[in-house]
Every structure is written in C-alpha cells, then in structure tokens.
Amino acid sequence: GLEKVTRYSDALVTNDGDKYTFNTSVVLTNLQLNYQYI
Q1: Phi/psi of residue 5, each to 5°?
Q2: Are 8 and 24 in contact (CB under 8 A)?
Q3: How far is 33 from 19, CA to CA, in rounded Å?
Q4: pLDDT value of position 14
Q5: Are 4 and 30 in contact (CB under 8 A)?
Q6: DSSP code at position 17
Q7: Chain-centre distance of CA 19, in angstroms?
Q8: What is the pLDDT of residues 1-38, one digit of tens each?
C-alpha cells in the first residue's frame, strides 16, 4: 500500500544503491502478490 510506495520513494531520494535495490525488490514482490489476489 502507501507504506510500500513511500519506502520506494525514500529509496530514490536517498540515492543509496543498496537501499534502492532492496526496496525495489520488495515493492515489485508485493505488487506481484497484490495482482494475484485482486
């Protein structure tokens, strides 16, 4: 939900490669799960 999007945005703002990679993976995984359950 909004928390996941915020984490993704924060990762972009921080410009931290590790954080960006980690949060992007989490967001994509959750999006896939959300689409499965819609």
Answers
A1: -65, -40
A2: yes
A3: 21
A4: 47
A5: yes
A6: H
A7: 10
A8: 445 545 555 545 444 455 555 555 666 666 665 555 54
